[in-house]
Amino acid sequence: MALLSGTAPPDPGLLAALLGWRLIYHGLPGALCLIPLARGPGAPQATTGLVPLAPPPAGTALDRLLHAAPRAEAGLARQGGLFALSDPGTTLPQALARTTPNCLVQISDALSGPEDAVPARLSQAARDAGLIPVLYKAGDATARAARLRGWTAQPLALEAFLDPATFDPRAEGLGQLRRKLRHAEKAGVTVASADPGALPLPDLSALAAAWAAHHGGAERGFSMGRFDPAYVARQQVWIARRGDRPVGFVTFHAGAAERTLDLVRIAPDAPDGTGHALVAAAIRSAAADGIPRLSLAGLPHPRLAARLERLRLPAPGAGLAQFKRAFAPDWETLWIAAPGWPALALAAAEIARAVHNPDPLPVLLRNAPAASPDARAHPADAVRPDTPDAAHTPRAA
Predict the structure, then answer these.
(1) Domains of the chain
(2) Is 61 a residue whose pLDDT tops 70?
(3) How far apart are CA 397 and CA 387, in angstroms?
(4) pTM for this structure?
């Protein structure tokens, strides 16, 4: 009021305008807010749990749940940094998720339970956390359930998979694979599985570092595994050697019904066909173990790849696609879905940033002892919030 005029009293009309502005801008919204405040919160409602996941020690209930999941990629939880989505009254997670600045992103399908319950569970958890619910790398059934709720779904990737029992490198259409395997054999490349308890970690670390330096200096993250000794020790590992020198390795998530290719780390000067020889050995092992499905992971869907090309954005190169197609796999569409186009566009941008600029790896449970019978009896010990209210503050967690 002192600034409205100098020594003379303020103009009455100006004061009336100021008072009217205050009533409209502050008083009216404040009065409207009294309506929900008067109604009160109503009856307490059960909310979906969202808590950070610690990498589970071997033998715990959570570790067994990951092993039994429909998709072996659930083993990504052993690297840490994920959240558990749980239904009210349950202790084990029904799905795995990550957060971005504005989104709660469920990775892949549910660990257990019907697919049509996924969008509702995810929506509730995202609402509790103040985030946008997003499905990422979801299968057809989960994407269909999201569309029935009115979400927007778009094809994200094509996942390559095959049946190890029927796979035969001598079959028609696998001529390129046979040539690659012959090149590796002539170069003296041999492949053997590695004992998880006796991994040559210095050799694997050196190969991972050389691979990263050759590919821009950093590994991608978010839904992709990154090299870490404790993480790799929980996977199935095949190592290629030329003489006594390791020239490459691959790791697979190992589930009860599926094995999924995770890390492929080949030395820049490895002989041609080294990667093909590693994967071929893993396929033979899966067939011997009676595993019905082996996944070579995914490639960007052609529609997505075309959009990235138009926008001049980076996408996996043709070499990766050629490598996977050499095994003549079948293909399955994976989806990304969110409640509407604006949410989907925001989620895609934030996920892309998280893939190319991942957060540092969390400290893992290195040399964790085998779980005791008591630990198996209390699976909730494997799911822990970092803070008392971590379920409601995923950003802080």
Answers:
(1) 49-159+334-361+377-386 (3.40.630), 161-301+316-329 (3.40.630.30)
(2) yes
(3) 7
(4) 0.77
